[in-house]
Amino acid sequence: MKYKRIIFSGVNGPLGHALNLLTKNDRRFLPFSSQECDLRLLETVRSFFSNLVAEINPSEVAYVHLAAKSGGVRFSTTKPATAFVDNMQMAINVLQVCQEIGISRVLMTLSTSCYAETLKAPNELQIHEGPIISPDFSYAYSKRMQEVLMRSYNKQFGMDVSSVLVNGIIGPKMSFDPEKSILPASLIREFEKNANTSNKIDVVVDSSVRREYTYSNDLAKILLWCVEHQETNSLLNIGNTQSVGIKKIALYVAKALKIEEARLNFIERKSTGRLIQSTSNRKFLQENNFQYTDISLAIADAVAWFLKSKKGWIDHE
Question: Which residues pair with 69 in a beta bridge?
Fold first, then answer.
């Protein structure tokens, strides 16, 4: 890589954890968590980053912004102000400090929830097309506005900022906190409680709901490519666009936990959340013919980590 130091936040989240495992033997990579540096506090960010680039030319440093305040539908509906303010504050602070100390190359991580729910398989040019009305609107808008931050800092300060959009992340260290977990994590947590019983397991489904999830290890590999090759001011949808329903996810989780399919009792009920989450990753695949891991294998890895560590009950950032 052309950069002598690559700093990245969010090491305790699934994507940061995967990137850390992928680069743990490479001294150029410096991961950190919110415990080491609270990105919501400008002076803390300024001091922390300045120490990291001491004795090195900042132009040879890249920063990958993975930190986020996020969660499932419950978190989005109960703490929308927290989701919006914290995510915006972190993004503003890191870009301001990177600009001040001379770190030009920055990779921002956005979410496919930026796209309006009415769009079908949206591409990167449609990020500001249509309103966001789903329960995660505040988090989604905070991520959408980071595209504006990217263009603004590039134009005013001549920085080299680009952004990627990721969908649901599956893998070790994903959050299993009931307040903040996404659907697969919620199912893993609930199924595991009943794995060693003979009880029927009720699973509420809405057959019209479709989701896209990507293995954290896949995304980590893609991020390394993006740091080197993605163009300034550009957006890339980098997630796996394999569409799956709730029932299929439940079956994958049951298989990973060795729960017989006959024990699952599916109950059809209308969802109150975003019904269809789809994107087009054509632009990325034209530049990098990446082969994604099947979602069933990603879920199996997340289950294995959960059973081994039990730390999934803790909320990670």
Answer: none
